[in-house]
User: Which sequence fits this backbone?
């Protein structure tokens, strides 16, 4: 195929968007759609290679795989090796372990599946994943494996024309499937091949069904395609379900630019876009670790601009000295394919990554205080995955043995104290009625994105209000991170979300910000719910756990790694008191109206002037606001003294 300057320039349009979005999403809110443009380009080029080979009856699947490996693996392997060396010196044990895990999964092109099972692409935690961006390489590689196999098998039974029609039909059906599944399962839809395959297949359609138009109309087609892509970059955001139906804008825009075939276009053929397009794969590889480094080490804004420049420079170096290495592409027999050098890169780098994973980042090479601080991140309720869900029916796990002594109701803060409540009881069991992010308010629901309300929490609270009649006089402990409902998150990196209302009831559905009216509506509903629970059961409510704003184990282990051995994460007592002013007033009202008993936590978790995140260098939290098992154990004496006398 003749070199297409327009496609090379289209690569530049894609990578510029992705880079700008990742370094500062406010510059280009929909820049992540650049990946969708890449998918279309990839589908066009791969379909051309496969169909030309099939039509000429000389297509080799193994040769196709080797060519893709030669193109993709070397630069990826070098990046992974650099991160493994870098992580040895600068990352905490668990973060280095995560790098090992993601290196191993990236080298075998399964990282999209691993990342799907961890956190969402747009979650704050994604900025700690050094190889998050390799999900798209895994999707492409999975497509490269399946697509030629399917086409070769099809050729044995149907004509070339029928194959082309099948690709067209598959693209249409894939798009419809993508729309439906994105709304049902938004997280896997983002990462997995089935909802992305149509984007690559529409590139195939562009190759199989080229549009023949007059020269003067090609420019119009190109401009229309460009308008669709640029529109998606600026008017779509991470709040939109993605890919979904909106993905048609960048995808169809890329399709139109490819169909226009304007090799002399100033837009795509200018020297800057041609260079960026040639370096685009390596720029894409290197830019994201630089984004993560800025976040991970809390670097200031000037590093964003340095990071962009360095992404381009490293992309240039990688393209010139790694991508352009001519690895052997043609082998005479099946045995000779064992000489494929990128395959050895996969094995070597993948094995090193696996060793880093299995040894918890070669844990023994760290100082002892770093290991102690880092390990607390994993010291959470061992039944958390089993008993603490985000949606659906609450499992109602029982902790301990003997007669039921206490029911714990609330969100993830409640879940983190369940085992300490169990340890405070004498031969009594505890029931876990907790749901992630679920404040104890009847009728509450969440808006996870602009369009889809989730009623799971409200349904659970309604269920609890009905079922509590089966447990008369059983004490109830309620624990919620209620401040996040009233005031929003206090983590510095989440300040953009501080005013947006995501938790609602029917009476608050028209309220757009966390103002006093919203406070009154939600507090009134909270009081009504707690009073209903207290009609036949003694109810205890915990004060708010200090929210320390920074991930305690990570921050401490980073500081210890840098030699700051006296470092402590803390907030002042004044800050804690001020943030809890509204909630403390609410408890006073609950004590008066519903005979609720307060369980103090400040005295157990704070000192005279500060609330600290550790005791003698061991964190009390597994993140910034959830008590670890060790931290929650500090409340056991309080539970014993206040709750035990009320047991039936």
Assistant:
């Amino acid at each position: 195929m003749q070199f297409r300057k327009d496609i090379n320039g289209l690569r530049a349009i894609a990578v510029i968007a992705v880079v700008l979005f990742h370094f500062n999403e406010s510059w280009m809110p929909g820049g992540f759609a650049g990946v969708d443009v890449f998918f279309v380009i990839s589908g066009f080029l791969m379909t051309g290679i496969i169909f030309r080979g099939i039509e000429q009856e000389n297509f080799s699947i193994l040769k196709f795989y080797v060519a893709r490996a030669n193109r993709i693996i070397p630069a990826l392997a070098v990046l992974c090796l650099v991160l493994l060396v870098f992580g040895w010196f600068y990352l905490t044990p668990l973060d280095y372990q995560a790098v090992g895990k993601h290196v191993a999964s990236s080298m075998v092109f399964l990282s999209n599946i691993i990342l799907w099972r961890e956190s969402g692409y747009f979650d704050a935690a994604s900025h700690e994943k050094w190889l998050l961006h390799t999900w798209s390489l895994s999707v492409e590689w999975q497509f490269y494996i399946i697509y030629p196999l399917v086409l070769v098998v099809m050729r044995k039974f149907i004509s070339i024309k029928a194959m082309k029609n099948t690709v067209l039909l598959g693209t249409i059906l894939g798009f419809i499937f993508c729309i439906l599944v994105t709304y049902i399962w938004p997280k896997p839809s983002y990462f997995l091949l089935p909802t992305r395959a149509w984007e690559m297949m529409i590139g195939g359609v562009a190759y199989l069904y080229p549009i023949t138009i007059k020269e003067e109309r090609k420019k119009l087609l190109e401009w229309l395609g460009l308008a669709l892509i640029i529109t998606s970059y600026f008017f779509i955001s991470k709040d939109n379900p993605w890919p979904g139906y909106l993905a048609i804008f960048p995808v169809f825009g890329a399709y139109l630019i490819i169909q226009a075939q304007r090799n002399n276009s100033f837009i795509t053929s200018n020297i800057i876009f041609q260079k960026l397009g040639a370096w685009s794969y390596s720029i894409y590889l290197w830019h994201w670790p630089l984004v993560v480094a800025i976040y991970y080490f809390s670097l200031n804004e000037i590093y964003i601009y340095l990071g962009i420049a360095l992404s381009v420079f490293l992309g240039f170096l990688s393209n010139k000295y790694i991508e352009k290495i001519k690895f052997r592409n043609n082998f005479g027999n099946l045995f000779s394919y064992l000489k494929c050098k990128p395959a050895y890169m996969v094995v070597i780098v993948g094995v090193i990554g696996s060793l880093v994973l299995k040894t918890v980042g070669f844990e023994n090479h760290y100082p002892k205080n770093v290991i102690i601080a880092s390990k607390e991140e994993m010291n959470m309720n061992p039944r958390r995955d089993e008993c603490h869900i985000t949606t659906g029916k609450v499992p109602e796990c029982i902790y301990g043995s003997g007669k039921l002594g206490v029911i714990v109701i609330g969100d993830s803060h409640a879940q983190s104290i369940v085992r300490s409540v169990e340890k405070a009881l004498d031969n009594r069991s505890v029931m876990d009625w907790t749901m992630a992010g679920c404040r104890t308010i009847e009728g509450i629901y969440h808006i996870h994105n602009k369009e889809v309300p989730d009623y799971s929490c409200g349904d659970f609270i309604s269920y609890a209000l009905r079922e509590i009649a089966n447990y008369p006089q059983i004490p109830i402990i309620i624990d919620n991170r209620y401040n996040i409902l009233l005031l929003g998150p206090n983590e510095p990196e989440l300040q953009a979300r501080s005013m947006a209302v995501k938790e609602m009831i029917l009476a608050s559905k028209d309220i757009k910000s966390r103002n006093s009216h919203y406070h009154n509506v939600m507090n009134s509903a909270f009081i009504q719910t707690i009073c209903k629970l207290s009609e036949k059961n003694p109810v205890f409510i915990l004060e708010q756990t200090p929210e320390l704003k920074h991930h305690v184990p990570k921050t401490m282990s980073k500081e210890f790694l840098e030699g700051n051995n006296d470092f402590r994460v803390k907030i002042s007592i004044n800050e804690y008191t001020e943030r809890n002013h509204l909630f403390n007033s609410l408890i006073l009202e609950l004590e008066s109206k519903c005979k609720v008993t307060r369980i103090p936590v400040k005295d157990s978790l704070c000192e005279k002037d500060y609330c600290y995140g550790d005791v003698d260098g061991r964190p009390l939290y597994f993140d910034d606001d959830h008590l670890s098992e060790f931290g929650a154990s500090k409340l056991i004496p309080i539970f014993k003294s206040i709750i035990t006398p009320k047991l039936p």
Notes: The mean pLDDT is 93.
